[in-house]
Give the backbone structure.
Amino acid sequence: MEFITDFISDYIQMTPEIYRKLILSFIIIVLLFILKRIANYIVRKRVSDVKNLYNWRRFVLYIYGVVLVISIGAVWIRGISSVSTLIGLASAGLAIAMSDTIANITGWFFIIWRKPFCLGDRIEIGGVKGDIIDIRLFQFSMVEVGNWVNADQSTGRVIHIPNSKVLREHMANYQIGFDYVWHEIPVLVTFESNWKKAKDILIEIAHEKAEVLSDGAEEQVRRAAMKYMIYFSKLTPIVYTTVKDSGIMLTIRYIVRPRVRRGAEQEIWEAILEEFGKHNDLDLAYPTTRFYSLGEEKKNEDK
């Protein structure tokens, strides 16, 4: 062993500077590669959870990358022995190798400090909606709502999203201001229907079935207005009138809690169908095509 060491030492001293650095670089790469394989072997033996195993292997890879950059830099860059240069090179290598990890940790600090959402909040980020169930150092988890399920109901899937997404994607919080959202139900009646009667019925149903602001909810709105520029001039249910191609559109607008939106809409629709069924001059409209005969109109005029 000593003979081999002396031979390598003499050979390195005899070769030009560039060859000596190449040989040292090769030796460093081989040794670090062997150490990385040993570390991964130990991790596989001691860690059984797939998620933890993945995180540990990524950690080993990051350390391998940082040590490799510093070691190779120490061979090829002059003056690397100074402490300041070592720290700078280590920081650069660490930032490159762990850019995603650093971004996720930064996102976690942003979530904890600014609180764009909390546990239990319903949010939408990057086109994905869900209820927050867990917040960790590298990612947060939520139960998905919507997607192929209507009216923002749960799909049953748990989605894990990196914390860095809060810094890069637009996000909507259903509950950041107060625990209500605005919802609308369009009701289309025929032109022949008594639309004024229909509107009065819808207003009565909206006030009876829709969720009306309580004192606690009004206080939520006032607190939200102090922190955000949130202002609503009218919080009670209202019905708007619009003319469409197939009839007269009466739109019920009311506030409701996000998690009960579908149930509230069902109650209102059932009440509408029951009330409209009691009146012969009220009919729901749908796309239709009407044909007029010019000959019949002339006959009617002659009579």
